[in-house]
Amino acid sequence: MKNTTATFAAMKARGEKISMLTAYDYTMARLVDAAGINAILVGDSLGNTMLGYESTIPVTVEDMIHHGAAVVRGAKNALVVVDMPFMSYQASIEEAVRNAGRIMKQTLCAAVKLEGGSELAPTIAAIVAAGIPVMGHVGMMPQHVNQYGGFKVQGKSTQAAQKIIDDALAVEKAGAFAVVFECVPADVAREATERLCIPTIGIGAGSGCDGQVLVNQDMLGMFDDFKPRFVRRFAQAGKLMQEAFKAFDREVKGGGFPNDSESFAREPQEVKRLY
Ligand code: KIV
């Protein structure tokens, strides 16, 4: 059954956990969707995983539309959320609404996600008023990496923890249907989850959230430049892929690939006519 923002609300009401994974292309979206994952995030983390940037800062609206549309074509049941990239919603509310609308019209996604707390409440309210569901994102916001001076856990002091909870409450009041908590102490995310009516989705935020999200390549073990503490590798797909690539290399170089059953043949009488 197709997951919608209403499914998210109903799952929180029933105390059912929500699963979410990132995907950035059609093939992966089909696999994630077929596994019964509730939602797919076309994260601007594609800047790292697909485009090889060191941060999400260079990602453009065009990048998000290109990958988002492919994911939507592959997702039958999962709710697809597409990230708004850096500087597509910060300069003005009007620009934010236009870019959110463009992303939704050109990808056919179900919702957009943007990073920010109370300072972005009017922007979230305007996008929601235009008919576009919004997922918030508080705590460690990767688009703020240059302000943090690196990817650092947020909300460690009482004051900072309170600010994150207040931000999430502001995001909810502005009309967001769910909110991501990234890299915050577990007790902060748990407290927020109890106080919010909308579902919280954690990444590096402990088990108290209503749902969990991970980056696909991280959880599949395809990316080993570094491994954040919160990542669990549910497979060693990177190793498996490497073995397959090596086997292909061996077979090509040894003449074992392709064999006759992997090649096309002509009828014998047609072959004769060539000579
Ligand atoms: O871009 C992304 O993948 C995200 C998740 C880490 C939540 O925002």
Produce a short descriptive summary:
The protein is α/β, with parallel strands linked by helices and 275 residues long. The chain contains twelve helices and eight strands.
Give a written overview of the molecule.
The structure is a single chain. The protein has 275 residues and is an alpha/beta fold. The model has no long low-confidence stretch (mean pLDDT 96). Strands 1-2-3-4-5-6-7-8 form an eight-stranded parallel barrel, surrounded by seven helices. The protein is elongated. The longest helix is centred in the last third of the chain and has 18 residues, at 237-254. It folds into two domains: 5-238, TIM Barrel (Alpha-Beta Barrel); 240-270, no CATH class. It has helices at 5-14, 26-34, 46-49, 61-74, 93-107, 121-129, 145-148, 158-173, 186-195, 216-219, 237-254, 268-272, and strands at residues 18-22, 39-42, 79-83, 111-113, 134-139, 178-182, 200-203, 211-214. α2 (26-34) crosses α4 and α5 (93-107) packs across α6 (121-129). β1 (18-22), α2 and β2 form a beta-alpha-beta unit. The chain contains twelve helices and eight strands. The structure holds 3-methyl-2-oxobutanoic acid (KIV). The site of 3-methyl-2-oxobutanoic acid has 11 residues, from β6.
**Strand residues, percent:** 5-15%
Helical proportion, percent range: 40-55%
Low-confidence segments, given as residue ranges, are: none
Bound small molecules, by name, code or SMILES, are: 3-methyl-2-oxobutanoic acid
- State the domain count: 2
Spatially, the strands of the biggest sheet line up as 1-2-3-4-5-6-7-8
End-to-end distance: 60 Å
| Assembly category | single chain
Mean pLDDT: 96
* Count of individual helical segments: 12
| CATH third-tier fold name of the largest domain | TIM Barrel
How many beta strands in the DSSP annotation?
8
Largest sheet: 8 strands, parallel, barrel
Named CATH architecture of the largest domain: Alpha-Beta Barrel
Which outline best applies? Answer: elongated
CATH class of the largest domain: Alpha Beta
